[in-house]
Structure formats: C-alpha cells, structure tokens
Design brief:
The chain is an alpha/beta fold. The protein is 43% helix and 14% strand. It is built from eight helices and seven strands. The protein is globular, with a radius of gyration of 16 Å.
C-alpha cells in the first residue's frame, strides 16, 4: 500500500526537527505530511526545512481537524493508507511497520496499544487513568468491542477507514481518538491493537492540562452517548 505519514503539530518547533530526522532514518520510503495546526511559532518552517510536506491551517482546529485535513489530502493524492504520529517525540517511528503489518493482515484500523505488552513503562496520573478506564468501558458499551487503549494517538488507517474518516471525523473534543474509533467500529470495520512503546515528551508542552483535560474527557463522554443514536456510516463498499 502507498502510505502517508500524517503528523499533526501545534507549537512543536522544539521537538519536530528531531522527530522528522528519526522518521526519515527509520522510514525513508514514506511520504510525510505535517499539519501545522495554526501554530504561532516556527513549526511550519522547521517541517519544511526537514523536507516534509506541510499544510498550514489558518487557525487551531485541534487534532481531529488536523487529521481530517491529512486524510483528505491522502484521498486526493492516491494514498491507500495513513499513519498518525505525534509531533512531540513520544511515539517510536521504528514501530510504524508493526502497525502497517496489521493493515496488511486485514485490519482497517490498527491502534498502537501503550498498555498491551504487560510490561509497559507508560504510566498516567490517577485522574487520567480513571478517565481512560471509564472511556474504555463506555466504548465497549457503545460498540460491543473491547478496546484497551481508546485514546492512543498512534494509529494506522487502511483504505476503508481512511475513506470513512476523511469526511466523518469530528474537529472537536477527542474526535481524533474516541469518536474516530467509534465511527470505524460502528461501520463494521476491523480494529486491531498491537503493543507499542511510548516515550516521554521530548520538548514543548502537553496539549491537555487540568481543567482542560477534564473538559475534553467530559466532551468525549457526550460524543459516545450521542453516537449511540446516530445512523451508522458506511464506506460504500
């Protein structure tokens, strides 16, 4: 499959150069598209200097909006699949082939599971851990599927999920993770999880803090409840 690596980036000038250097070393055959999500720093300039394709949004849409932009670019330019990778250095580009292998084995969406190997060193705070557990339960109730890492931002999308999400993903809340997952599940597509690593952020600041984090998780809960009564989207296949 022809694959596009999509990197949403907001105010990531300090970490992005190292991420792109690592990506090019580990994945020399993949095209890279950085979605500059309304940054006010030099994120776009850093990406261009590193040789990546860059799409600069006029203002910050959030990761959901940035991803939808990337997916639409992929569809318009003949890509069969996309990989979502964060710009903060937490994901390991060397593990992208593991996600792509899942697509090649028939999955429509492959999630990099931060907790899936039984020995993961990735830890979260108590409040965030409780919220993630609650979302995991709600996703199972809403879809009937047991997904361990519902909020992972390290994912690979095959042709059918790419087509679905290029128009269906929300630009708000946690559309890039929870709602996208529910859209794929409710369309009857195949979702798989594979164990992946997770590093500490190399630079910059996390996008979710304190009250904003709580707000986003509450909105995600509303999205889940709203999705239960929403007509199921299909890929047209």
């Amino acid at each position: 499959m022809r694959t596009l690596l999509v990197i949403p980036a907001f105010e990531e000038e300090d970490s992005l150069a190292d991420v792109l250097t690592e990506v090019k070393r580990e994945l020399p055959s993949l095209d890279i598209l950085v979605i500059d999500d309304g940054s006010t720093d030099h994120t776009a300039a850093v990406a261009r200097k590193a040789g990546a394709l860059v799409c600069s949004l006029p203002f910050n849409l959030g990761v959901g909006g940035a991803l939808r932009t990337g997916f639409r670019y992929a569809m318009l330019n003949g890509y069969d699949s996309c990989v979502q990778l964060d710009a903060d250095g937490q994901h390991l580009p060397s593990e992208v082939p593991v996600l792509l292998a899942g697509l090649n084995q028939g999955a429509d969406l492959v999630i990099g599971n931060r907790f899936g190997d039984g020995v993961s060193t990735y830890t979260v705070g108590v409040a965030r851990g409780v919220a993630m557990s609650f979302l995991r339960l709600l996703v199972r109730v809403a879809s009937g599927e047991k997904i361990q890492d519902t909020t992972s931002g390290f994912r690979a999308f095959g042709p059918r999920s790419l087509k679905l999400l290029s128009s269906g993903i929300s630009v708000e809340y946690m559309g890039d993770t929870v709602e996208a997952l529910l859209l794929v599940l409710r369309a009857g597509l195949i979702v798989e999880e594979v164990p992946t690593g997770m590093r500490q952020r190399s630079a910059g600041r996390p996008s979710q803090r304190s009250f904003r984090l709580v707000y986003r998780y509450l909105c995600a809960v509303l999205v889940i409840f709203a999705s239960v009564g929403r007509p199921v989207q299909t890929t047209g296949d």
